[in-house]
Amino acid sequence: MPPLELSAEEFDALAAQVIDVASEIVRSLDQRRTIPSTSGAETAAAFDLAAPQQGVRAAVVADFEAITAHARASTGRLFPYVVGSGEPVAALGDFLASILNQNVTAWRSAPSAVTVEKTVVRWLAEAIGCSGFSGNLTSGGSLANLMALAMAREAHAPANDAGARPCLVYASEEVHMSIPKAVALLGIGRDHLRLIETDDAFRIKTDALEEAIASDRAHGLRPAAIVASAGTITTGAVDPLSRLAEIARENELWLHVDGAYGAPAAMVEPARFNGLEHADSISLDAHKWLYQPLDCSLLLYRDPAIARTTFAYTGDYAKTLSEDPVEGFAFFEESVELSRRFRALKLWLSLRYHGLATFRAAIEENLRLARLLAHLVEQEPSLELLAPVELSAVCFRWTNDSEDTLNTRNAEILHRTAARGNVALSHAIVRGHFGLRACIVNHRTTEDDVHAIVHEVLSAAQAP
Ligand SMILES: Cc1ncc(COP(=O)(O)O)c(C=O)c1O
Description:
Layout: H1 8-28, H2 40-47, H3 60-69, H4 88-100, H5 111-127, E1 134-138, H6 141-156, E2 168-172, H7 178-185, E3 193-196, H8 206-218, E4 223-229, H9 241-250, E5 254-258, E6 281-285, H10 286-289, E7 297-301, H11 304-311, H12 344-354, H13 356-379, E8 383-385, E9 393-398, H14 403-420, E10 426-430, E11 433-439, H15 447-462
Parallel strand pairs: 2-3, 2-4, 4-5, 5-6
Antiparallel strand pairs: 1-7, 6-7, 8-9, 9-11, 10-11
The structure holds pyridoxal-5'-phosphate.
């Protein structure tokens, strides 16, 4: 037998053990701490080991159990940043995708996988009201945003051959950090990202945007793209997409909608996302609010020709020999990535298993629970909301101290809440105030879990 090959019996036994461990994790989630009690020294002692020259065979399963013990658990009380909850049918899909090990470069290499991915992209585009968009799955919203802005640049200030030329990108000051990162990487430069102020609801001020575009034009500069946020990272604000689409059209600019966090909510509250269908590109992270295990993000674009202008640069050895529109299709001509994992399988299995109606119900429930949390915060005299709750991100703070100590006090409360381990929150800086933030994009969260947030924060605040 080849050196690395397993006998069928050995694989069966190992797989059975793995399934037992996985089942135990899923069964016991509710009893687990959400944040493990561990330290840097403990994780280094446990895992910073010498490379194994000889294998331990099936004892390796115990390693996974140790890794689990030092990991955050996907309980219904996991609310930091924008972290999906790892829907288990999709998790099995990830396992099966690795067993099948398709390289989803082009139809000729992975006929079923390519077709499954194109179908899943179509389902999701239709589900958010963007029928007719093309797209592909990427590792995350950061890559989707980078690829979207690469298309915007190629459409409005072509750079692929001659190199980057000065151009401008506009977004609100609440935009996610992946956008400044993308403009830096694309050679547009962070100085050429205009961060426009926001209104009381943290939405971009469109009059300020129009003034900035006009002023830049008057100075002979070249505006290229607007990035709208459909669910800002901090407060979940949705920019006025219809108005932004008009401004983009009037000024002949690319409109990218960063819906990495919020776009799935267009499935249940389409009116809030009016105008999404006029975007040139949209990012939507399925590993956030479609509950998929990492990694799985969707990049949609209106015009696949621009994707190909931006990304197709095919070596002779990779040129497709088929004239057939299905069999000649290559994702690598519309993406940064060449070798690509079969991310679509988990989405296919999870969407087919539950149906889109169940996903809509889960998102609706998260929205309801976020409103419940906002209500509980408003009822509690020592807490206050820091921002309106538009989607499922709730920013709040403890107020029972003098204003000049509140930032430090809330940072300490966050730290103590994490040390208690029951609920995982993140922090939010809202107009200079340090606050606590719970973002509910979790299919396991119940009303009890939402009550636990308030209970844990008050307990941490009142502890001696
Ligand atoms: C609005 C927004 N855009 C982009 C991203 C980046 O996504 P990823 O972490 O998948 O790269 C995030 C992540 O939280 C986000 O909330």
